Amino acid sequence: MSLRFLTAHFAVSPQIRVEDLPALKEQGFTAIISTRPDGEEKDQPSVADLGVAAEKCGLAFAYIPVRMGATPDAHSVTVMRRTLAEMIGPDNTGKVLAYCRSGRRASDLFELASAQTEEPAPKSQRFDVVVVGGGAGGLACAASLLRRRPELLVAVIEPSTEHYYQPGWTLVGGGVFTARDTQRSEVGLIPARANWIRQAVTGFKPEQNRVELGDGSEILYDAMIVATGIKLDWAAIPGLTETLGKNGVTSNYRYDLAPYTWELVSKLEEGTALFTQPPMPIKCAGAPQKAMYLACDAWRRKGVLGRVQVAFDTATPSLFGVADFVPALMNYIKGYSIDLTLKSRLVAVDGEKKIATFERTTDKGTERVERKFDMLHVVPPQTAPDVIKSSPLAGQDGFVSVHPDTMQHTVFPNVFAVGDVAGTSNAKTAAAARKQAPVVVENLIAQLSGRKLDYAYDGYGGCPLTVERGKIVLAEFGYGGKLLPTLPGWILDGKKPTRLAWFLKEKIMPRLYWDFMLRGRELFVRPAKKHEG
C-alpha cells in the first residue's frame, strides 16, 4: 500500500481494503476518509464494508465522495474541512488517511479544504430530487427512486452518521437482541448514486423549491420527499429527562436505554413495575405494551411474576386501536395479572423518590394519582419535528399535510412525505414506511413527467405484538382498521399469537429492512394503482 503524506497528520493513498486496516491502525492512524464513490470498479470494496471494519478496528470513518473526473464542489470541500478539524482535533492528536482510486481526488479535496482559511459565503446547490431525512423512509425512497431513474440527480440530507433499526429495540429490551445488532453506519446505507449532504435542515421554502441548511446554504430542487420522522418529546413530562437511565426509569424508545430495560427486568424479583403509553400519535402504537409482555414473560419464566405487581397506564380509550386484535391481547393482560388503566396519562416523574404521577379521566372527571415504582418504562409524548411544525408544509396537527392515498402534499404538488412525519391516519411503523415508499416514488416520477398520479397507499401498517418470548400477535391493518394480512390465514392467523410470527420478527424482518427496504428492493410491497385497490 502506497502512502503519501501531505502533512504530519494527513496522508492519501489509492484504494484500501479491509485487510489493510489493522496495519494502518498500527501505524498510528486514527481515522479514514473515503472520497471514492461505490461501484466505480467491480472488485472495489464497498464503503459499507470498509466503514464497519474501520469502526471495529477503532478507526473513525467518513465518506465524502467525489465523482471521477469531477472537481470537488463547495459542499464537499466544506465537509472535508470540518471533518478534518474533528478527526485531527485542536491538539493535533489525530492522524488521517484519505483514499480514492489513485489518491488524486483525496489530495485535491485536501488542498481545497486547506486553502479555505475563512468560511466561504453560503452557496446554493440544485438537485432533481431532494430527500430530507436518511431514516427508514428516506433511504427506501432514495434507493427505489434511483433503481427506477438512475439518471436523476438525488440528494439525501441527513446529519446523523449512525442508522438504527428501531423495531429491534423491543427485542433489545427483552434480552433477545443486543443494541449493536440494531446499529449500522449511515455511510454504507446511502445509495451509491445519491449525494449525501451531512447537514440538518433548518427551514423549508416550498413556494421557492428551496430548503435551508444549518450552515446557511440552500438546496434547490425540482421535487422533494420529506422523511424527517417524528419528535420524541421527553421534556414534555416534568422530571423525566433528569432520571432517564437511572432510578429504575427506562424506555425502549432510545438506543442507549433499551439495554437498561433488560437490566432492570433481569434484576427485579419483587416490587412494582409500571408501563406507560402517551396519547396518539406515536411511532409503533404496540411498542409500549410489547415491552411489558416480554418483561412479564421473563418474570414468569424466572418464577417471580407473582411477586411483581405490573400495571399498564395508557392514555388511549382502548388497549389497541383495531378491535380484532384486542381479545388475544386481553388474554395476556389477564394471564400476567396486569393492572390495566385506560385514559391514564403520565404527567410527572420523581426519580429519586420513585413516584410516577398520572392524570386519569373517569366518569367523574379528571384526577391525579401518584404511584410508587421499582421500575418505570416510559414512552414519551410525540409530535411533528419543530422544523416541520413551523413550516408551510404543516397541517393543523403539525405533520406534513398530504393526501392519504398519493402521499402528495395538499398544497405543493412537487412535495411528498413518507414515514412518521406524514400527516396520515395510518399506524406510524417501519412497515408503513416500507409500503409507502414505492407509492411515493412512482407518484413523484409521474409528477416530474407531467402525468397523473396513479398509485395509492392503502394505509397499511404492521405491528408485531410480542406477547411472550417465542410468540407474536402479528397485527396488519390499513385505513379504518381494515385487516390487511400479508400471508393467508391458513398460514398465519394474525389475530392469534403464533411462533411463525415470532420467527418472522426475529429472523426475517431485520433482513427485509437492511437488505431489501433500504436497498429499494420492494418484496411484498409492489405499489398498487388506484383502480387496482
UniProtKB/TrEMBL annotation:
UniProt domain Beta-lactamase hydrolase-like protein phosphatase-like: residue ranges: 3-115
Gene3D superfamilies referenced in this protein's UniProt entry, alphabetically: FAD/NAD(P)-binding domain, Protein tyrosine phosphatase superfamily
Highest taxon listed in the record's lineage: Bacteria
Pfam families: BLH_phosphatase (PF04273), Pyr_redox_2 (PF07992)
Domain FAD/NAD(P)-binding: 127-437
NCBIfam families: TIGR01244 family sulfur transferase
Descriptive protein name: Sulfide:quinone oxidoreductase
Source species taxonomy: Bacteria, Pseudomonadati, Pseudomonadota, Alphaproteobacteria, Acetobacterales
